[in-house]
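Annotated sample (chain length 196).
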Amino acid sequence: MTQSPTAPPMSGTPKSALKRPATLMALLVIAGISALSGLIGAIYALAGGRGLAESYATAVINSNPEELGVDELLAVTGGSGTDDVIATLKEFDMWDTLISTAHAELILKSILLLVFIVPVLLFTLLAINGATWARVLITIFAVFSLIGHLVAATSGPGLAMLQIMGFVGLATAIISIVLCWLPANGRYAKARKLAV
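Output written by the structure step:
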């Protein structure tokens, strides 16, 4: 009589029986929001193009006339407002240079955001199982992304959407750094490793 072979009992808990902790789900959502807010801000600044650069330059002229020397320009030309300043700048072929500078600044801010945001998004997607290496990389890039979010949040006048996305990104990046290292996430990662 032959006996059928039986499998040896499994050590540890099967992977399917492990329940993903709420803290890990919160990490995935919050880090995802942080990355997406930076991505939205970068796309907004890039897609705005020359029109956004013009409204940004006009808002800067309106908000800081003394700092930019606009009040002195108005006194010399006899103008009385932003439209007169812009007309004078156009007359001396300086308006296009100002717009090009504002547009370059917006592109630089977008690139700065994207350089650190894309890795946060990638490693957030890879952290679904709570792997320690993914949480370490989320932490590193989330810390660096604070620079991009801060630059976006402190953008000049006329860039409200970029500023809002910057503030959302700042808050969620800080929260995601904390969530990465909550004990439940570490226990879940260890349990998954032992279940292999």
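Annotation: The first helix runs from residue 22 to 63.
Annotation: Helices lie at 22-63, 65-68, 70-77, 82-91, 95-126, 132-153, 160-180, 183-194.
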